[in-house]
Amino acid sequence: MKINFFKIFLRTFLLQIFWNYRKMQNIGRLFVVMPILRNLYKDNPDMLKRAISRNLDAFNSNPVMASYSIGAMIKQEEKIAKTEQVRLLGEEREWRVISVSTANAAASLGDRLFWATLKPFSLLFLIITLYATQIYTLKNLDTPADRIAAAIGAVVLSLLVYNIPALLVRYKGLKDSYDGTEDSFYGLIKLNWNRIIYTLKTTGQILTFALFVYSLYINFAGEDLSADLLTRTALLVSFLVLSVWTRKLNIPNIYLYIAATFIFCVASFIS
Amino acid sequence: MFEIVIACAVLALLEMDTTYLGQFLFSRPTCAGAIMGYLCGDFFLGLQLGVFTELLFIDFVPIGGVVPPSGAICAGTGVILSGYFKMDIYFSFFVGILLSLLFTSVEKTLRKYRSNLLPSIEKQIVEGSITPFSLIAQSFLVEYMAVFIFILLMTTLLGPTFLYIDEHIPRSLHIAFKFSYFLVPWIGLSMLFISFSTKPKVE
């Protein structure tokens, strides 16, 4: 059967639309594969109902990398459609194994690569690009209005830094997993994902350190040594240490910010 | 008022990108903040609120069923409150954070609501009385309306309230909020550095 991968690819953007606590992305997955199921079982309504029920099983993966699971499931679905009645249960069991194993592996890789690495990396890229065009957004708001085009360009570029790899992986994942075999884990081990993540993270750390030092320079350079400067510096250092400590305790930084605001409010009233 | 409604409608649409529609990161605070800033007539205010929000929210990763506070809601409502109701940026940022935390319960309620509907919906899909497409369209509409109403309600309640109490806010409170706002990029940058750590996290 000729698969229209582009149509499936477009449908994957709605994978999470009916996200629920019982079966997570199950309705979304069914929506993605529905044209394939209708095509495979157009002459057999009972088998179509059975396939729909099967695709309503719980499913949860990373929305970008889920393509690696969906392509492999479509391939197995084709196998089920052609199989004899006696071997049907076995092939369906195999479908479920593929569904769970590929979804879990893709979720783990996708969350680490896209949410925990590429997204912060594109933010870092944005701030560096803004600095390069002399828009010191971390410092002040008095940027000349003629810099708007440069700032819009920086925002668009940062979106591209994330979206180009994400769209490529989303599309290629469908094809690779459809063409893949069990030995290549349905295309998932074609790339050395851990190496990519490691390289991006290491580069990110070096660039963030450089950005931090440069930000300190543009914020504090030229200021005279005064009580105000010393107070700000001391508080800054204390909160940096606190933020590392709260991170270790798995306390999100917004709570540190809220706590800091309350402490300053109380202190300002007392003084 | 019409401009505020349009801004809330755009922000609700951007928020849909967080989970339900595409995940192109149009909902990331830097992008949502910049778009809302442009709409409100102060692009750089939106951009700064967006960058600050994203730096502070960097340690939230939407893994599994976790519902993190929405960065788009934080930056977007912050911009609306600053742009249309002239709330000082350090106050609007704080209010945006509280609203994003409050929005988490709205999102959880919607997810629970869908979970409760699931058994009957699955039955209807298998029987063919409802197609996945029409279900998805309905679900999108419900989600969008809930987000839009939340944003509109909160901004139109809090904005005028701030205008009313603005004159009575003591100067010391301004200084306190200003100072905690000053800390945000530094806490955020240290967080960004840690987020790139290659060491496995020990739970």
Topology:
The complex is a heterodimer of chains A (271) and B (203).
Chain A: H1 5-11, H2 26-40, H3 45-55, H4 67-82, H5 88-132, H6 148-179, H7 193-220, H8 227-248, H9 253-270
Chain B: H1 2-19, H2 29-40, H3 43-56, H4 71-85, H5 89-127, H6 132-165, H7 171-195
Helix pairs in contact in B: 1-2, 1-4, 1-6, 2-3, 2-4, 3-4, 3-7, 4-5, 4-6, 5-6, 5-7
Could you spell the SSE succession of chain A in H and E letters?
A: HHHHHHHHH
Query: Could you tell me how far the N terminus lies from the C terminus of chain B, measured between alpha carbons in angstroms?
Result: 48 Å
CA radius of gyration of chain B is: 19 Å
Largest sheet of chain A: none
The outline of chain A comes out as elongated
Largest sheet of chain B: none
Strand content of chain B: under 5%
- Secondary structural class of chain A: mainly alpha
Number of strands of chain B: 0
Mean pLDDT over all positions of chain A = 90
Q: Care to describe what's here?
A:
- The complex is a heterodimer of chains A (271) and B (203).
- By secondary structure, chain A is mostly helical.
- Among the domains of chain A are: 5-103, no CATH class; 224-271.
- Helices cover 72% and strands 0% of the residues of chain A.
- Chain A is built from nine helices and no strands.
- In chain A, helix 1 (5-11) crosses helix 6 (148-179) and helix 4 runs antiparallel to helix 5 (88-132).
- The termini of chain A are far apart.
- In chain A, 38% of the residues are buried.
- Chain B starts with a helix and ends in an 8-residue tail after the last helix.
- The model of chain B has no long low-confidence stretch (mean pLDDT 91).
- Chain B has helices at 2-19, 29-40, 43-56, 71-85, 89-127, 132-165, 171-195.
- Helix content of chain B is 77%, strand content 0%.
- Chain B is globular, with a radius of gyration of 19 Å.
- With 203 residues, chain B is an all-alpha fold.
- Chain B has one domain (2-195).
- At the A-B interface, helix 2, helix 3, helix 5, helix 6 and helix 7 of A face helix 2, helix 3, helix 5, helix 6 and helix 7 of B.
